[in-house]
Amino acid sequence: MNSDTVLIQVRNVSVLFQQHIALDNVSLDVQRGEIITLIGPNGAGKSTLVRVVLGLLKPKTGSVFRQAGIRIGYMPQRLSIDPVLPLTVERFLSLGSRKKKSVLETALEEVGAIRLFKRPLQGISGGEMQRVLLARALLREPDLLVLDEPIQGVDIIGQYELYELIAQIRTQRNCGILMVSHDLHLVMSATDQVVCLNQHLCCSGHPETVTKHPAYLALFGERAARDLAIYTHHHHQGNRKNG
Description:
Layout: E1 6-17, E2 20-31, E3 35-39, H1 46-54, E4 61-66, E5 72-75, H2 89-94, H3 101-110, H4 126-138, E6 144-148, H5 156-173, E7 176-180, H6 184-187, E8 193-198, E9 200-205, H7 207-210, H8 214-220, H9 222-242
């Protein structure tokens, strides 16, 4: 592994909440230009690991290395906006930032949402909101993008488009991307490495390798793996035909 490309190294991290073990001896590497996705059942520790990576939570044991001067852009799982608060997309993007209007517009344009610039934040759809949150994360000019459930509240067509957009951002910006996802079908074709958590590290590696791992099968079942294999096969065939 090239040390110049390593953005984050998590080593043997354990996190306890009172007496509950949230993470047990978990390690993770994120490199520049790589998309890594955290999967696992509810309560598996995915969001806890994200908080450790972001520096918002100090582990009980283990260590976290962050590349010197690293810039991290974070897209939260959800954001609650008071429905009576008069807030446009433009104003939302400018909160806590001194970026010029043209920079805000460029970020929205990059995520395909420039048309929303003057729109009230409360009047946009779930998919549009995710693009706005992604644009806000990009304003930090990140070396690492951390995306917590980026397709939450988005319809199936919008999910495909968002994952394609995330891949484009990775290529254009050469940033590392750490995603959290519950969606096994779509995310497997949109990531380079999968890390399967259930408080501990169950398995990790290339998506096709992970879906055949006994720990993955124990968590999600052989039927889920078969369905995913069929889905992935047809998805890749479709890509070849479209290419």
